[in-house]
Automatic annotation (TrEMBL):
Domain Pyrrolo-quinoline quinone repeat: 198-332
Organism: Actinoplanes utahensis
Domain of life of the organism encoding this protein: Bacteria
Coiled-coil ranges (or none): none
This protein's name: Pyrrolo-quinoline quinone repeat domain-containing protein
Pfam families per record: PQQ_2 (PF13360)
Alphabetized Gene3D superfamilies for the sequence: YVTN repeat-like/Quinoprotein amine dehydrogenase
SUPFAM superfamilies: Quinoprotein alcohol dehydrogenase-like
UniProtKB keywords: Membrane, Transmembrane, Transmembrane helix
Ribosomal protein found in the keyword field: no
Membrane-spanning residues: 31-54
Alphabetized InterPro entries for the sequence: PQQ_rpt_dom, Quinoprotein_ADH-like_sf, WD40/YVTN_repeat-like_dom_sf
Length: 445
């Protein structure tokens, strides 16, 4: 399943960047950790299968920035005077630095902002705030930069958006004047909605613009899941499916007004476009590929809504109701207001206040599958790939385990002799912060 991204459309509801609730502190551990863990064999007790082995590789200097793993490499960020340096490390044997390059600093997020490194289409994307820097993965050389966030997922094409506002509509924040405000991609408030939004397809290797697609007002752009080379563009009056390689319009569907009001926000979940009509109190589901209308349901607004990113759900502090995104109908109920999230084909039930994983449940029925008692923390991983957990070891250090699609059992990977729990993993390694060092273990030959 895929997470939900939401943007406010300007037809009826202005963009409100402060509307989202602040998540509890433990949730921030989840953000930005690139954790990809693939296990292809079943463990027999504590033993590892052929081809798998837990071994210590070595350590390297730690920095204040969070651990970044991408493409089998480790990336660290270092401050040097007024510059910010990105180091790439090989983890094939003992950690070895491959290259160092300087990356721009977004003044609004500072030296150690939420830097995100992603390998795709033969390049490295370094994203922070609203900017993207594209690097050569072999040398670290900067190929090109974009002043917008980059959407990927469609092969060698990156997609950016830019809202175009009428001159003279920038809001004077010192005035305190009341009224609706509409925010641009650079978070600048305007007193009018944008005249139009330009969606651009860029060659990831060169930065060359391949195509431009325009819509009046604000839009949301989402790459379709499962590597489909298309993007879904939602505007205030229609859905548009566009070929990400060429910009060709593949199909469109009009979005009707309900009870006299148009849509206020939209999101994409599990191949279903969810269009919300806040003023009418309705949500409509569309097939993201065919744009066929699937269902309509009433929206229930509460002061303390259910917390379940990556799922379609409703509820309050006493109960969570999980819905089928293809039908909009109730699937199963949880008699609590804890945190739910899809993991490895199951749903992880986490205690909301502490972040402690409680159990895995069946994604279709909600029936319990695995009791996670004793496991103290989740290590974030791509939800469709696996669930990675850690817990304290009786003899010291941390024990790592993983749940794979098709089998809800937790399999032990190994023990890292560190006391801290700031760790990340990829297909071959687990990296943990240990004071002023980052220590690296391999669990796969």
């Amino acid at each position: 399943m895929h997470g939900v991204t939401v943007i406010e459309l300007d037809l009826d509801t202005p963009l409100d960047p402060d509307a989202a609730r602040t998540p509890p502190p433990w949730r921030y551990r989840r953000l930005g950790l690139l954790l990809t863990l693939v296990l292809l064999a079943v463990l027999g007790g504590a033993a590892t299968p052929s081809g798998w082995a837990w071994r210590y590789l070595g350590d390297l200097p730690a920095t204040e920035a969070r651990i970044q793993l991408a493409g089998g490499r480790l990336f660290t960020v270092e401050r040097s005077g007024g510059r910010r340096l990105l180091h790439a490390w090989s983890l094939r044997a003992t950690p070895e630095r491959l290259w160092t390059t300087e990356v721009p600093i977004d003044p609004e997020v500072g030296m150690f902002g939420p830097l995100q490194v992603t390998g795709i289409g033969g390049v490295l994307l370094v994203g922070e705030g609203r900017e993207t820097t594209v690097l050569d993965p072999g040398t670290g050389r900067v190929r090109w930069t974009a002043p917008q966030r980059m959407l990927t997922g469609s092969g060698g094409t990156g997609v950016t958006t830019e809202a175009i506002f009428r001159p003279g509509t920038l809001y004077d924040q010192d005035s305190g004047d009341p009224g609706r405000l509409y925010f641009s991609a650079d978070a600048q408030p305007h007193t009018e909605p944008p005249l139009r939004t330009e969606v651009r397809g860029l060659d990831l290797a060169t930065g060359e613009r391949r195509w431009t697609f325009e819509r009046p007002g604000s839009v949301i752009v989402e790459p379709l899941p499962d590597g489909d080379p298309a993007v879904l563009i939602t505007s205030s009056d229609r859905l548009s499916l566009v070929d990400a390689r060429t910009g060709e319009l593949l199909r469109e569907a009009a979005l009707p007004r309900l009870d006299g009001s148009g849509p206020g926000s939209a999101s994409l979940l599990a191949g279903v476009a969810l269009v919300d009509y806040q003023e009418a109190g309705k949500q409509v589901g569309y097939d993201a590929r065919t744009l066929d209308r699937l269902w309509t349901r009433d929206l229930a607004y509460t002061l303390d809504p259910a917390d379940c990113p990556g799922l379609l759900c409703t509820g309050d502090r006493d109960e969570t109701l999980v819905l089928d995104p293809r039908t909009g109908k109730p699937g199963w109920r949880l008699p609590a207001a804890d945190y739910l999230s899809p993991r490895a084909g199951y749903v992880l039930w986490t205690e909301a206040s502490s972040g402690t994983p409680l159990r895995l449940v069946d994604a279709r029925t909600g029936e319990p599958r695995t009791d996670l008692a004793g496991w103290g923390q989740e290590v974030t991983a791509p939800p469709e790939r696996m669930l990675v957990l850690l817990r304290g070891n009786r003899g010291g250090g941390q024990v790592f385990g993983a749940v794979l699609p098709g089998d809800p059992r937790v399999r032990t990977l190994g023990v890292a002799d560190v006391e801290g729990r700031d760790c990340a993993a990829d297909d071959w390694h687990i990296v943990c912060r240990d004071g002023a060092r980052l220590r690296v273990w391999a669990y796969r030959e």
